[in-house]
Amino acid sequence: MKFFLDSANIDEIKTCKDLNLLDGITTNPTLMSNAVKSKDEIFDLYKEILKICPDKPVSFEVTSTEYSEIMKEAEKLIKLSDNVVVKIPIIKDGLKACHDLTQNGIMTNMTLCFSPMQALLCAKMGATFVSPFVGRVDDMGADGVQFVAKIRQIFDNYGYETQILAASVRGVSHVEMMAEIGCDVATMPLKTMLQLVEHPSTKAGLEKFLSDFSKIA
């Protein structure tokens, strides 16, 4: 399973890359609003992110909801680099844009997925990625893991190549369960990624080893 960093923070992206855990990056308007002070700074930040991650998929999200405007935004984004993934909400005009961008060889990430049927539509449009929101589905009182498992089954039934990118993961257990059901990608904040390596027994065992070793004359 690929690990994507869900962040627009330059220091976090550099840390993740230094650990060799960076398979890609996802951003969204909320993350961007926390990273810049004005809209004029957004494309400068995009360029800085792409310098750090020049050869992995990097998702930048459109904020338009009408087809023509989505396509205009997409055109600006894809000029930045060949590894830019145009992130689009799953709405009617978004699906149309996904189809047309895919036909032109542009990578897409269809976001805000809350049902298996939405995911199926994205696969039919040829989306590169579809992003089911696991944690938010849990928040709604449903089973987020089972939700993604249904998408996996549907895609496998028909041989769709769209990659399932689990978003809104709420911790290590979500990442583990996504791996168990065959999710292609999990995107997560740096805190969650770093927690993947941690285990109290590892910490206790290491402390014991080092303590015993220190007793050697």
Outline the low-pLDDT stretches.
none
Number of domains: 1
Which CATH-level-2 architecture?
Answer: Alpha-Beta Barrel
Largest sheet: 8 strands, parallel, barrel
Q: Return the structural class.
A: alpha/beta
Number of helices: 11
Would you tell me which CATH topology applies? TIM Barrel
Kindly estimate the percentage of residues that lie in beta strands according to DSSP. 15-25%
Enumerate the strands of the largest sheet in spatial order, edge to edge or round the barrel. 1-2-3-4-5-6-7-8
Radius of gyration computed on alpha carbons = 19 Å
Give the SSE string: EHEHHEHEHEHEHHEHEHH
Record field, number of beta strands: 8
Fraction of residues in helices? 40-55%
**The CATH superfamily title:** Aldolase class I
Assign the CATH class: Alpha Beta
The 3D shape can be described as: globular
Task: Report on this structure.
The radius of gyration is 19 Å and the shape is globular. The chain is 52% helix and 17% strand. The protein is of the alpha/beta class. It has a single domain, classed as TIM Barrel, CATH 3.20.20.70. The longest helix has 15 residues, at 144-158. The chain contains eleven helices and eight strands. The mean pLDDT is 97. α4 (67-78) packs across α5 and α6 (116-125) runs parallel beside α8.
